[in-house]
Amino acid sequence: MRREHTDVRAGLDREAAALTLRDRVMEVSGVQSVRVRVGRSKVAVRAVSHFRPLDEVRADVETVLATGVDELGLARPPASTVRVARPPRKEGKAT
Q: What is the pTM of this model?
């Protein structure tokens, strides 16, 4: 994390960062579910959108993700990849 004061050091667990970013992305309209993986140099987001156009959802997710990563206060902001897809179709029962 960024050092605001020279006497203080802070750390952030990757799982905690992933949960924080997941909660932020879930607030985007049209997002049904999200998986976030945070590594040392990369954040990978997979979202499932169920009613809005995928391009609009992807743009909103990228904006929210960039804001969330900036607010984490990391010394080196990680690169991010965002994938947005539709949920799989449900197969009907043949009777």
A: 0.86
